[in-house]
Design a protein that fits this description.
heterodimer; A: 4 helices; B: Beta-Lactamase; 6-stranded antiparallel sheet; 26 strands; elongated
Chain lengths: 112, 701
């Protein structure tokens, strides 16, 4: 048994735009849920997806692979994919791998 | 023994015993007769029987009967149980039960009668009749058709009187009891009604009459509904019934009778037992991949609920038979099964028993096992004795089939329980066999897969760590939880032009797909190093190779090259290695891009110098990502702490300490693979005092 990671996912939807908020740990155990959720959103007509990583406490190689995969898929299927900056706790993985320079991060004013 | 001796014994018999000669005079009168009739032997003997104990209205018939017997030898009353009225000395009448026999004695006849006073019994019966009449009146009074309705009920309904006799039974109840009329029922001893059945509760314990809800009610005890299993001792037929009892009370609240509704729940109970058994069997089968053990467990579940014996045999590829499990509730009997096995031929007979099931793939039911069948099957007398000792009543053998292939059989044997097997038992057994067959197949596939995985995994790691001059190396690879899957972590060492290259990496993903990527990474790195052994350029080649794959193939890797104490390293999205030196534990190198993933890439190469006693530790993220209590990760800080404690130890000791620390920390199963490479520099061979090297070194300089 793989221990359940503390992870939460919720989404906000406006027309064909959606924001997927990932909080906690995106890892080998939770990545499949996110993949399924995004797959559902896209087939449901979402063309503009922002994945909010501001509460992402941990990410492992499986989680990172999923973000890369989604980015590749968005390019191939012609929808837009954006990520918000992760907090310091999980930022190092993005820096170590070069993901911070390659994935489409957007700077957002922090929520009021 | 002469007649007198017999009479002496009879004198103290429980029944009255009276003898009469052919003239009708009393010639013998025992003590019990004195009590019953109120006449002493002295008073009775010599009297005419007709005048003494026969009521006046019956005397003519008595005399006529005696006359006819003496004339023709025919006696209507002889040798049968009669119920008649008799007369006491005080002139009162009372009911008796008697049997009369005639004996030819000394040229004439004598007549002998056992007489029992049955007034108490008759009173009880009269009372029951009155009660029944009352019940029936009540039924008729409230609703004319109620009696008809009760009789038409599918459920059996009985009414039991306080003396435990059953005084009423509807048609269904009579049918259940195998009786034709109420009369017959009323005359029956209530205990005898249960006689032909082996009666047990749900827990398998015997149920006696005292346990029946109606009897309990009549005794003022609590009467919860009772689930009852009865097996007919002769036919082996099994029935499950649910008994519910209600008290009938008089105006004063005294219990007058208990009404029992008996519902035949055989079908429902069997199906729920089956579901229960199937569910438990499935759970057991799914619980472990050790199929031999699980089959033994399933066989154990089948007894004694489903059968007295349960055996599982598997066939091997060559058609041989492997007895896997045999279960009986009594362990002593298992020894018998062992002995029986010894008699079994090596080759299965395709025309009978298990061989037949194997050949046809169809279930075989022997609902009766006549002795001839045993004789036919027996090899010798000892075998026959053993077969007879088992006491088989019915045998059911069903195939265990997977994708049309019969891989084994499940055999159920009924013996001492006396139960028979019906169609529903065949269906149940077939269902179990199907689940069991699947479990065996899964287990076989799993072990094959595990074998494949192990082979594949081994092919992805060096067979043995190389002997790198001047370096002492230890490595570790631990796969995540399941051994049937190939992990994505790997490490490798190889030599290029006198330098040594080491790669440690982590392909994201698992299984055969990840193994293919791992293989690609290793081969690409080997090939690339032939042209250019600079770590950064090797990683660039690997990155390009990964990107040529049709699907996203991502890998993190650390590549380093050492030549004596000098080294160079590059990182592709991989955790940086640590150097354990006089300066403590420090990270070496700088981050580079993850391989196979991105378009903007950079693999900066860093040079470093190792001093004798310095150690390099490279890991995969399975180490730092290890999950402990409260979802905490092992992390880099803990790793550095552990390393600083052991920085002067040998690589093997460092590895042990690290593994211990991880295992102590870890909660739950490993989610990710873990790979560790530890390299300690002991100084260039020349510095170690090797003469030959020194000479070479000198010449070289």
């Amino acid at each position: 048994m793989i221990q359940a990671s503390p992870f939460e996912m919720r989404s906000e939807r406006r027309a064909d735009s959606a924001r997927l908020i990932l909080a906690g740990e995106l890892d080998i155990a939770t990545a499949p849920q996110v993949e399924q959720e995004v797959g559902g959103m896209i087939s449901d007509g979402v063309r503009d997806l922002i994945v909010d990583l501001s509460d992402l406490r941990f990410i492992d190689s499986s989680g990172l692979r999923l973000l890369i995969l989604l980015n590749d898929r968005a390019t191939a299927e012609d929808w837009t994919f954006k990520l918000t900056r992760p907090p310091a706790a999980s930022l190092s993985v993005f820096q170590i791998t070069g993901a911070d320079e390659n994935l489409p991060f957007v700077e957002e004013p922090s929520a009021p | 023994m002469d007649l007198d001796q017999a009479r002496a014994i009879l004198n103290y018999a429980h029944s009255a015993f009276i003898s009469m000669d052919e003239r009708g005079q009393i010639v013998y009168w025992n003590i019990r007769a004195e009590e019953i009739f109120g006449l002493t032997r002295a008073q009775a003997v010599g009297q005419r029987l007709a005048d003494t104990i026969i009521p006046e209205r019956l005397r003519d018939a008595h005399r006529e009967g005696l006359r006819r017997f003496l004339a023709t030898g025919e006696g209507k009353v002889l040798n049968k149980r009669l119920e008649l009225s008799a007369l006491r000395a005080d002139g009162s009448e009372f009911p008796v039960e008697l049997t009369v026999s005639a004996l030819a004695e000394g040229g004439g006849w004598s007549f002998h009668a056992f007489v029992a006073d049955i007034s108490e019994r008759q009173e009880a019966e009269t009372e029951r009749q009155a009660l029944l009449d009352e019940v029936q009146r009540a039924l008729h009074g409230s609703e004319q058709r109620l009696d008809v309705i009760v009789n038409a009920l599918a459920e059996a309904v009985t009414i039991r009187a306080p003396d435990d006799h059953i005084i009423y039974a509807n048609q269904a109840a009579l049918d259940r009891l195998g009786l034709t009329s109420l009369e017959e029922l009323r005359k029956s001893d209530p205990r005898e009604l249960m006689g032909p059945y082996e009666t047990t509760g749900e827990d398998g314990r015997e149920i006696r009459m005292e346990d029946l809800p109606s009897v309990r009610l009549l005794r003022g005890e609590d009467a919860t509904p009772l689930m009852l299993r009865s097996v007919h001792r002769e036919s082996g037929e099994e029935e499950w019934a649910l008994l519910k009892a209600t008290a009938v009370r008089d105006a004063a609240g005294t219990i007058e009778a208990a009404v029992t509704i008996i519902e035949n729940v055989t079908a429902a109970k069997r199906s729920s037992l089956r579901m229960e058994f199937l569910a438990r069997a499935s759970r057991v089968l799914a619980s472990s991949l050790d199929y031999q053990q699980t089959l033994r467990n399933v066989a154990g579940l089948a007894v004694p609920q489903i059968a007295d014996w349960c055996a599982v045999d598997l066939f091997d590829e060559a058609g041989g038979r492997e007895p896997v499990a045999v279960a009986h509730i009594d362990p002593a009997k298992l020894e018998m099964a062992e002995r029986l096995r010894a008699f079994e031929p090596d080759e299965l007979d395709p025309d009978q028993g298990i061989g037949l099931v194997r050949r046809t793939g169809e279930s075989t039911l022997y609902s009766e096992i006549p002795d001839e069948l045993l004789v036919q099957a027996a090899i010798d007398d000892e075998h026959l004795d053993l077969l007879r000792a088992v006491g088989m009543r019915a045998v059911l053998m069903v195939p265990m089939t997977v994708r049309g292939r019969t891989i084994g059989t499940l055999s159920l044997v009924s013996a001492e329980s006396g139960r028979s097997f019906g169609q529903s038992d065949v269906e149940l057994a077939e269902q179990i066999a199907e689940v069991a067959a699947l479990a065996v197949e899964n287990a076989r596939l799993y072990s094959e897969r595990t074998e494949v995985a192990r082979t594949l995994q081994n092919s992805l790691l060096p067979e043995a760590l190389p002997d790198v001059p001047g370096w002492e190396i230890a490595a570790l690879y631990r796969p995540a939880g399941r051994e049937s899957e190939v992990g994505g972590d790997f490490y490798d060492f190889w030599e290029v032009a006198g330098d040594w290259l080491m790669v440690i990496g982590d392909v994201t993903g698992k299984g055969v797909a990840a193994a293919a990527v791992t293989s690609l990474v290793r081969h690409t790195a080997w090939a690339a190093s032939d042209f250019d052994s600079a770590p950064g350029r090797i990683l660039a080649r690997v990155d390009a190779a990964l990107k040529r794959r049709p699907s996203l193939s991502v890998c993190s890797a650390l590549c380093l090259r050492v030549s004596d104490g000098r080294g160079a390293l590059a990182c592709g999205g991989h955790p940086l290695p640590f150097r354990l030196s006089e300066d403590g534990v420090t990270e070496l190198g700088s981050a580079g891009t993850l391989l196979g993933a991105f378009t903007k890439v950079d693999w900066p190469e860093d040079q470093f110098q190792m001093h004798p006693g310095d150690t390099l530790v490279a890991i995969t993220d399975g180490v730092t990502d290890t999950v402990g209590a409260n979802d905490e990760r092992f992390g880099v800080t803990r790793l550095q702490e552990v390393l600083s404690e052991v920085q002067n130890e040998t690589p093997i000791v460092i590895r042990e300490r690290l593994v211990n620390a991880l295992e102590e920390f870890q909660v739950g199963a490993r989610a990710d693979d873990t790979a560790i490479v530890i390299m300690r520099f002991n100084g260039a061979p020349a510095e170690q005092g090797s003469e030959g090297r020194r000479v070479n070194a000198n010449i070289g300089v």
